[in-house]
């Protein structure tokens, strides 16, 4: 049987896994909500399915592996809302199931360290929805589930350079604030390593080695571009959207020891400095 990945919500992050699997002869089926995105998937040798909408029975029948990137909605996890029974009926068919969650499930720890065994105390509605989705997937009997809690994702097309260049970047200063982050290429490497050595029930934090204040990242991007360091604005005085402000509701350092110790992953970008230098080189 051909190794076949069925990827729900096959967007920015999931697409970085494509070349790693396709090079090994895999079949990759990816869902997208937009017909406009189907040609770009086909250009990558990924078979697109417009979903919600398409009948997913044939794809589920063919799948040996599932990847779920789709975020929870008001009604809960969108994949399980429609396909819970179909997936549960095939639980024994799958060799590996990966759910992409977020380190937001840990909530605020005042800049302290968290690992995969830290109790889940999300401080935001998004984090609470992820905790519920994780539990819903974990409740399916016999499903070889692996949960990946991703820190802030950056990579080509997603970095601070554009805002620094156009002068809209700001260094928001909140005392003690630190974030963990991860380059999208390293997420793909972690997923591939887990697929190669599955351990159903495993939970992995996916982040780099260097939790850092967000203003430091902006300042370093400006230095790389040889542009003035953007102004510093105190958090309490900053004009921010509710979404942007919610990111500052939590401060923590996330341990990534498990992806190294269990999966043997060696990060391509162990800190934001190496990641930003690589992005700038790609731009050039």
Major β-sheet strand ordering = 3-2-1-4-5-7-11
- The overall average pLDDT, rounded, is 96
Kindly, what is the distance between the CA atoms of the first and last residues, rounded to a whole number of angstroms? Answer: 43 Å
DSSP summary, beta strand count: 13
CATH fourth-tier homologous superfamily of the domain at 4-154 and 182-208 and 253-269 = NAD(P)-binding Rossmann-like Domain
Kindly provide the radius of gyration, computed on alpha-carbon positions and rounded to a whole number of angstroms: 19 Å
CATH class of the domain at 4-154 and 182-208 and 253-269: Alpha Beta
Proportion of strand residues: 15-25%
Low-confidence sequence ranges: none
Find the structural class using helix and strand composition: alpha/beta
Give the proportion of residues in helices. Answer: 25-40%
Order of helices and strands: EHEHEHEHEEHEEHEEHEHEHEHH
CATH fold node name of the domain at 4-154 and 182-208 and 253-269 = Rossmann fold
Please outline the major beta sheet.
7 strands, parallel
- Second CATH tier, the architecture of the domain at 4-154 and 182-208 and 253-269: 3-Layer(aba) Sandwich
> Number of helix segments?
11
Keywords: NAD
Protein name: Nucleoside-diphosphate-sugar epimerase
InterPro entries: NAD(P)-bd_dom_sf
Features:
globular; single chain; NAD(P)-bd_dom_sf; NAD; 11 helices; 18% strand; Nucleoside-diphosphate-sugar epimerase; 284 residues
Describe this structure in words.
The strands form four sheets. Strands 3-2-1-4-5-7-11 form a seven-stranded parallel beta sheet, sandwiched between helices. The chain has a two-stranded parallel ribbon with strand order 6-13. It is of the alpha/beta class. Helix 1 (18-22) links the parallel strand 1 (4-8) and strand 2. It has eleven helices and 13 strands. The termini are far apart. Helix content is 34%, strand content 18%. It has helices spanning 18-22, 38-43, 57-62, 78-89, 125-138, 161-166, 184-196, 214-225, 242-247, 257-261, 272-283, and strands spanning 4-8, 27-32, 47-50, 65-68, 96-102, 113-114, 145-150, 152-154, 171-173, 181-183, 203-206, 232-234, 253-254. The protein has a domain at 4-154 and 182-208 and 253-269: 3-Layer(aba) Sandwich (Rossmann fold). The model has no long low-confidence stretch (mean pLDDT 96).
